[in-house]
Amino acid sequence: MDLSSLLTSFIPSSTSVCLLFGFFGYLGIAGSVLPGKLVPGANLADGTRLHYRCNGLLSLLLLVGLLVIGAWMDFVSLTAISDRGLELLSTTFIFSVIVTMILYVAGSKSNDRSASLKPHITGNIIDDLWFGIQLNPNFLGVDLKFFFVRAGMMGWLLINLSVLAKSIQDANLSQSMILYQLFCVIYIMDYFFYEEYMTSTWDIIAERLGFMLVFGDLVWIPFTFSIQGWWLLSNKVELSTAAIVANCCVFVIGYLVFRGANKQKHDFKKNPKALIWGQPPKVIGGKLLVSGYWGIARHCNYLGDLLLALSFSLPCGFSSPVPYFYPIYLLILLIWRERRDEARCAEKYKDIWAEYRQAVPWRILPYVY
Question: Where exactly are the transmembrane stretches of this chain (predicted)?
Fold first, then answer.
């Protein structure tokens, strides 16, 4: 593909716009009408708390089922996304910029004094656009922060499935593609099975909604996390049995650490007396958990996330650094985020945090970092 053709492929079309807004429309309707567990969020500064309908798994399964039926009836093409990957990328990016501007203008004009919608304006327009002004803006009763992260995770799976369909259509399905797809399906389905855990994460609790989260959820997650699948479409990799087994081990270990650590944190926040590994939890200052994975490293969940990211890339072999963009990026991001978390926790917990650091000296990887 020459440069002119490449640039042309980024130009949004009416089809890409319809695909994007059709997807958002479905998510808005399904998220509002399908049954799901109503999960209370964290207590906000003014004592209020939002409630989140966690029906993402049902919404996803219904959508995939409708797409399969539609393809069987020749109403839709399963390769519609993979055939228009770059224009969907640009369309979603433009949408993210527009949404960010709308959030900025609406937030600046808001007189709401609630913790969810009270404007937080620094006066630095770059900072306000990047981090956002309001904590929990909504549209037609839909919490946009929760909606966007759901859309990003679901979009990642839809892109992958379309790439898989393209691979089958082109008769170049490989063991590597199957392994990559399998790991991603398990990871994403697990995310939606435990969707309520998302309500206790820092992004949902404390981050305002600006370009950082809008772009991160709608563009970065689905389009960069799927790079391995796109790469395998045009690069066939043959894996030995030993390589497959090793790759599966990395995935399983990463999954156990990631899911286990997040579950322990979530359960502790909901019930500080919940048993961890069959024992009463050990707590410093009545707030900081030092049992289970959280007694091994202060951010052990990040270690699990990094191992999972690596397992998504290992099926691509080592002939190119391109498929390893995701784990390399994630390593940089999580180290930056861990430093940011450490500074916030040191300010918030003061002497308790210093005691916690002595009890759990390792940040992410024990005996290394």
Answer: 7-30, 50-73, 85-106, 147-165, 177-194, 209-232, 239-258, 312-336
